[in-house]
Amino acid sequence: MTLLSEEIKIGNITFPHRPVILAPMEDVTDPPFRAICRQMGADWVFTEFVSSDGLIRDAAKSLVKLDVYPEERPVSIQIFGAHIDAMVEAAKVVERAKPDFIDINFGCPVRKVAAKGAGAGMLQDIPKMVEMTRQVVQAVSTPVTVKTRLGWDENSKHIVDIAERLQDTGIAALTIHGRTRNQLYKGTADWTLIGEVKNNPRMHIPIIGNGDIRDPQSAENAFKTFGVDGIMIGRASIGNPWVFRQIQHYSQTGEMLPEPDISERAGVCKRHLEMSVQWKGEKVAVFEMRRHYCTYFKGIPNFKPFRMRLVTAPTAQEVYDIIDEIAVADFQAL
Fold this sequence. Notes:
Blueprint: E1 8-10, E2 13-15, E3 20-22, H1 31-39, E4 44-51, H2 52-56, H3 60-63, E5 75-80, H4 84-95, E6 101-106, H5 111-114, H6 126-139, E7 144-149, H7 159-168, E8 173-177, H8 192-198, E9 207-210, H9 216-226, E10 230-233, H10 242-253, H11 262-280, H12 282-288, H13 290-293, H14 304-310, H15 316-328
Parallel strand pairs: 3-4, 3-10, 4-5, 5-6, 6-7, 7-8, 8-9, 9-10
Antiparallel strand pairs: 1-2
Helix pairs in contact: 1-11, 4-6, 6-7, 7-8, 9-10, 11-12, 11-15
């Protein structure tokens, strides 16, 4: 099965047919992880979300999230906030970092964000959401995109109308997560309304679907059944950046790629740590990579002794040595 190429243009960037996109994830999608995912086939990557208040206060933790490297592009820097003036100023700060896109987060469901009216909290005030988007679009020359959810709860799934109103502000693309804010990340994503947005004859901007895409089959279903222009993958990419190339290959050929072997898993894990050390320093990198080490080797039998050593090793060299052992270990014999 070979599919005809139908390129998609968003802003000044031309994407291939059926782009597969890395979702923004706090404490996950830093430059090293984004670069790994790009190497593994992601067509477009998003930063962690960045607080507008932090940016306009020059908060160091927020500013470091604006780091963008050439090998990541195309890349979006995502911002969130509850105040229109702060979001406009933050967008101007972000633009100086020269991302390919600026994304507005209207989808984060966590209490500390939503309770303040930011992220998915904005779904309780649609007029403010639309006006904030309009002012951000007008304030910058960088293309602006939006990521949001179906609605605040089961009784307010107004995404079809919201999508039209957001499109009218001049955004370049819209990503929809197929859950309400109240669902958080529980239950099953409802793609039906995502499909309604995409098939609404009034919509002309690209629509990207997000939620429960874990493998080539679920990706293919999203494209074929709901007609979305692209798909976004979040949690399924953690420890599994190969999911991007697997989806791309299946979409183009109808064939499944084999799972990466131990040697490849070890090599990518090691490269991830090396880039993290270069970006954030050894001490911080070794500590923060502990959330990634074991995900790279998920499902391998008899891995527990290695896992304990990985998450307690204090230096990068010790971790490298352990990963080298893993690459050649016979786990069936352990």
